[in-house]
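FAQ

Q: What does a record look like?
A: Structure on top, sequence underneath. For example:
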């Protein structure tokens, strides 16, 4: 009997230990972002250690935050779904695709909008004055055909201008922003146009042979969210305190960018190891067309288009369906 009691007691202690381990939150956050100013908060959080400091202020204990830059939204999506990263900064259409494809299982949702900025379609072909002038011999570089911000904006503009949303899809080539910019500046590859983002688009326009053809804002007749911050529901549920810490760190980064555009530019230049002047980057960050506020803008208009053309299956009732509850009080659309 005594042996039986000891075994029961030992089993109970082991069960309690197991429950305690299951309830323990992670002590590391792995961030991944695409490249460029659309993901500036993560650069700031990395340099200023905002996550670590928020955790310390909250009495949470030591937290390690790591940051990875990836060239394409496909790589970001794969990293999140495979569990290799926890929180991502990703282009809006790829985020919407993740939400649609993971409903009912991994349930990827947004924490907040990350950035609003215009993306430019630049060209070095003197014969192209509008998208009507593209021929089968032309090639348009963008981060990822059919799924990137630039690809969806191009489809929306093609539908408005040419009457067929996929009229230019066969001309698109997937390239990272740095590689596309190098191709445009060299003029040696078949790439004659590039739908890119800041700072790369402005770097290209410093070359007199390159000019702006259109802006992503033309797709929605006004500003639209460029990127979003997202994670999977199970990570948020398993780490409620850590999620709140990350949320607070992002808002702190937003505030830092608004109040310190010069230092934010210096941080971006340092981490990206770019040769672009700090003043050049600062000018973009301070541009009224840019915003690092958390409110989603024209998200439902973009989702509605992607749903109409069959890229997304389920139409959400409101933009709040796409985001975790912490974002629901924001004035989004």
């Amino acid at each position: 009997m005594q042996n039986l009691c000891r075994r029961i007691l030992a089993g109970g202690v082991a069960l309690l230990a197991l429950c305690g381990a299951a309830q323990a939150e992670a002590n590391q956050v792995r961030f991944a972002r695409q490249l460029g100013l659309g993901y500036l908060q993560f650069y700031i959080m990395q340099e200023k250690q905002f996550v670590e400091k928020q955790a310390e202020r909250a009495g949470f204990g030591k937290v390690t935050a790591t940051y990875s830059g990836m060239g394409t939204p496909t790589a970001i999506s794969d990293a999140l779904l495979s569990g290799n990263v926890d929180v991502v900064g990703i282009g809006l259409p790829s985020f919407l695709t993740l939400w649609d494809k993971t409903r009912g299982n991994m349930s990827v949702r947004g924490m907040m909008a990350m950035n609003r900025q215009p993306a430019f379609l630049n060209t070095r072909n003197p014969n192209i004055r509008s998208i009507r002038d593209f021929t089968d011999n032309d090639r348009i570089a963008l981060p990822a055909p059919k799924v990137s911000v630039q690809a969806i904006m191009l489809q929306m503009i093609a539908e408005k201008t040419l009457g067929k949303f996929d009229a230019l899809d066969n001309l698109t080539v997937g390239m990272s922003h740095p590689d596309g910019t190098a191709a445009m500046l060299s003029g040696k590859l078949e790439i004659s146009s590039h739908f890119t983002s800041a700072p790369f688009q402005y770097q290209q326009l410093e070359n007199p042979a390159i000019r702006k053809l259109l802006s992503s804002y033309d797709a929605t007749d006004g500003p639209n969210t460029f990127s979003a911050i997202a994670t999977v529901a199970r990570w948020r549920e398993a780490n409620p305190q850590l999620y709140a810490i990350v949320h607070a760190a992002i808002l702190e980064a937003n505030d830092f960018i608004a109040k310190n555009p010069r230092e934010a530019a210096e941080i971006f230049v340092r981490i990206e190891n770019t040769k672009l002047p700090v003043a050049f980057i600062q000018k973009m960050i301070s541009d009224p067309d840019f915003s690092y506020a958390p409110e989603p803008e024209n998200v439902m208009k973009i989702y509605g288009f992607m749903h109409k053309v069959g890229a997304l299956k389920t139409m959400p009732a409101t933009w709040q369906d796409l985001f975790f509850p912490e974002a629901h009080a924001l004035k989004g659309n």
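Q: Is there anything notable about this one?
A: The CA atoms of residues 37 and 302 lie 21 Å apart.
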